Every structure is written in C-alpha cells, then in structure tokens.
Amino acid sequence: MNAKILLTLLEDDFSDDNVATAIAWLKTKNPSNKSANKILHKIFPHPLIEEELEWLTTWAKEGDWEFFAGHIYNLKSAVLFDWIIQLLNAHPDNSDTGRVWANLILNFRNKEIEQGAEKWLTNERLNDNNADLVVTALLELNPTQERVQLAKQIYKHSNDVFLLCALIKHTKDWEARHIGEALLEGKEEPWCKQFIAAALTNCDFESHKVSIGKFLADPNSFDGAYRYVQDIFMEQPDSLFLLDWIADNYESKLAKQLLTKPLMIEPADQNGDVLWNWYKTGEENEIRFEICMRSFDNAWCPLPPEAAQYVSSWIEANKKSKLKKYAINALQRVRKSFSTPDETECSKRSALMSHILKTTDFDNDYVEEAQEQIMKSLNVSNQVHLTVQRFKSTNNSEDLEPIRVLFQRSSLPLQRYILCELLPLRLQEFSDLAIETLKVKRLLRKFLPDYRDIGSIIVELLRIDPMNEEVLVIAEDWLKIKPEEIDMVVYEDVNKLVTAAKHQ
Q1: Which of 57, 113, 393, 396 has its CA 20 to 30 A from that of 138?
Q2: Domain assignment present for 167
C-alpha cells in the first residue's frame, strides 16, 4: 500500500483499524520520508498514538517535528502534551525546538512550559529565530529581572516590534519607551506604529500623549492610527483625549473618518453625562458641538435630561445647519427608564426558568410546551441550566439523575456551572464529583476559560470545607499559574481562601 492510497483511506474512515494499519506501515519507513510524515501528521491526534510513544520518540529524534507541531493549537491529549514537553527538554538543539516552545507558550498556561522555555532560552539561544516570540510570552507571564535583561539582549539582535511592545507594556522600561517614541515619530510601517502606540498608552498614556497625538495626525500613518483608536478606546471608553484631539485636528483625515464612525463610547448613562460635560466645560463652538452631537448619534449614549432644553433651543436657532440631523437624533435619545419586555415576548427558555423560580405564573399549557421543546433540544446548555434550577427550586431527588447524566455530557464550563450551583447545598456526592473533576489533568488554554472554571470550583469547595487538605493541595498548584487580567477576581478569591487556611 502506498502513501496516497493510505491517506485516502484515512480521509474516508479514520477508524482504529485504519490508524493501526497506518502505524504498522510507518514502522517500515524512514523518518526522512516526506510521504510518511504526511501520514503521521494525519494520525497524530488519534488515541492509538498514545500507545506508541517509544516508537514515536525514536522517529522524532531522526526526523523533523512538523508531524505534531501543526496540531499544538488543537491538542486535546494530556498524554501527548507531556510527551511533547519531555521531547523538547531532551532535544534543545533541534531546529524546531524554539518554534514549538513559542507555540506552546502562546497557547497554553502551564508551569512546565514556562520553566522549560526559559531554560531553553538561557542556554545560548538568544539568536534563535523564535527567541523573540518565546521571551515576549515569558514577559507577559512574569517580567522578572532576568527575563527583562534577556529580552533587551534579544531585541538588540532582532529589533522585533512585538518584543519592544512587551518591554514597554510589561516592564515600563524607560529605554524601551524612548525607542518606542522615536519609532512612533519616525518612518515605521503604520501597523508597527499602531502596536507601539497601544503599548505606550497601556504603559503611561499621560507621558506619551504628545507623541501619540502626532502619530494620529500623520496622514501616512492613517491605517495604523485608525486601528489604534478602535482597539484602545474600546477598552477605555471614558477617555476624552480622543474628543479633544478631534477638536484640535478637525481637518485631518483621521478626524473626518472618526466623525462618521462610532467613537467607542459605551451606551451607559454615566458616559452620556461625561460626554455632555466635555462640551459644556470647554469652548462652546460649532466644532465641539458637532463632535458632541455626532458622538451621541454614533455611540447611542443617552442625552442627559438637563441637556435636552439646550439642544432644543439650538435646533430652533439653527434650522438650516448641517448639524441639525445629529442634534435631532441626540434629542430623541433623552434618557428614559426602560421597562422590562412584556412576559409574552419572553423566549420559551426564559418563560420556563421564570416558572421554575416561581417569579412568574405562566399558563400551564405554555409551560409544558416550553419544557417539552427545551428538554428535547440538542442544546445541552439549556438542559443543564433548567434542570439544575428546577432541582434547586423543588429539592426533588428525582431531578438528580438527569443532572448526573448531563454532567457527563457537559464541557468543563457547564460542569463548573453545575458544581458551583449545587456545592452550596452541601451534597456530598457533588463535593466528591468536584474533587474528581479537579484531579483530571487538563490542558489549560489561554483562549478558553478552563483556568477560571477550575478556580471557581476550588472557591466553592473551600467555602464549604476551608481545611480540606486535598483541595488545598490542588489550589496551591493552581495558584502557581499566573492569571491574566480577566482571571484576577477568581485568582484573588482562591488566594484569600488558601491564605486563610494556612493561618488556621
């Protein structure tokens, strides 16, 4: 059987038998065989590969690592994950090692990756093509003094803009900031300036806003400047710098563009107040009024009631103004108290949930129809939420069996929901289930909430049993992985509970 036929066979039927046939075929081939590597790449995610790690290690010593490198992003097997880490540590001189470390550290949260990548980097790898990627990721995890020095050495060799941005953002290093400002005012590509401006903004906006203002006004940097505004001011919607900048640079290409687009101001009452106060506390000229009215029109901020009379008077006095339509639109958005939708407009899921929680009394026929449709749905999430809430409302033990079944079918986020809802009820069965869930070795991905899900389960377990030694060991191991900003609340909750237990 040749490689082409075997590959077609695997495409048509990725069964255990066909994968076993492929493995047997591969064992007769040389690791340098390109067709063989295509077959190995195809079957690498299959569970049968986990039984062939000794042979796989021998193959990897002699061939390139493309057969597994392309699977790292979607890797699901903890066994293969551990095998890859061991392979990297055992072969630091392989030409693919740096690339794989970079791929791992960018996609996963794992102490072994952090330690292994740093060890590889410090072993005379500063000129490796992937050194900048690896040290950038390490700086994001923990900008230690040693890592900062490594990063500076690597930057001198690579001049990588993303490494420079990491130095600025995560270390606030003045030398890096001065380099960033020089590049921002120089002739770098617009996309480079976009990331440098974002890093300087996150580091110390006040110290660098003059340079950032010049960057925004540079017509040659328009594309990067526009993307910068979209990214940064979505994160900082209450900043008035952008409005001031548009007023001062009204004739610029970027200002004209921004006036026709949403200015990333959130549709919240307080931001409507901020926007109106910005206009009233400055010079009340036509440019500032246009910016204010267009902002209300584009961003859907509610116009404060006290501004309504002012805007009405302005419309009456400026009936032929080009700004009239924006002022009228803003006036139509005078803040109101919004009422909840009529109950008959609720979705069937909302109707049933309200009925279960006894907050609404719906017609029984309607509720039965809703329950029948939802519980037959393929949407496991809906079934989980409704079944758990029904049990909490009725405390009927008969509802526990469907919860057990759904738990086994659920992803970690839904398992976390079930456990966090039921653990406070102090059901021993679910306490045991929670601990077993935590013991499963998981690949904690940076782009999935697994880290937070596990932390949330730890919090609930420690709240009902603060001195549970088994849970405390798991918690301390979990705390070793540095959280990202979005994880800080659950991280601090776990840390407080563990610290309190140590002082008991």
Answers
A1: 57
A2: no
418 and 503 share one domain: yes
Single out the residue in 408, 431, 464 at which a domain terminates: 408
**Cβ-count burial 490-501 (b if 16+ within 10 Å, e if not):** bbebbbebbeeb
| Structure confidence at residue 338 (pLDDT) | 35
| Whole-angstrom distance, CA of residue 330 vs CA of residue 304 | 10
CA dist 260 and 128 (Å) reads: 46
Q: At what angle do helices 469-479 and 428-439 cross, to 10 degrees?
A: 40
CA angle 341, 343, 349 (to 5 degrees): 105
List the structure tokens of 455: 């932390």
- The pLDDT score that the predictor gives to residue 63 is 83
Instruction: Please state the rounded mean pLDDT for residues 86-96.
Output: 92
Per-residue pLDDT at 340: 36
Closest CA to 37 of 56, 21, 12, 18: 56
Asked if 501 and 472 touch (Cβ cutoff 8 Å), the reply is: yes
Q: What is the spatial distance between Cα 336 and Cα 218, in angstroms, rounded to a whole number?
A: 41
Output the DSSP codes for 263-304.
Answer: ----S-HHHHHHHHHHHHTS---HHHHHHHHHHHHHH-PPBP
Radius of gyration, CA atoms only, the chain? 29
Distance CA 147, CA 161 (A): 17
Which pLDDT band, with edges at 50, 70 and 90, does 501 fall under?
A: very high
Total domain count, the chain: 3
Length of the chain: 504
Report the C-alpha gap between 57 and 264 in whole angstroms. Answer: 52
Rounded distance between C-alpha atoms, residue 218 and residue 212, angstroms: 10
Is the same domain home to 377 and 443?
Answer: no
In a domain, 67, yes or no: no
Helix/strand/coil for 359: coil
Distance CA 247, CA 233 (A): 17
Is pTM, for the whole model, over 0.85? no
Model pLDDT, residue 177: 96
Query: CA 217 to CA 254: how far, in whole Å?
Result: 7
Distance CA 280, CA 269 (A): 17
User: What integer pLDDT is reported at residue 270 of this predicted model?
Assistant: 64
Q: Establish if 389 belongs to a structural domain.
A: yes
Q: For residue 280, give its domain range.
A: 263-338
The CA distance from 373 to 399, in Å, is 18
Q: Is the CB of residue 44 less than 8 Å from the CB of residue 60?
A: no
Q: For the residues 456-461, what does the mean pLDDT come to? A: 96
Residue 120: inside a domain, yes or no?
no
How many CB atoms within 10 Å of residue 194? 25
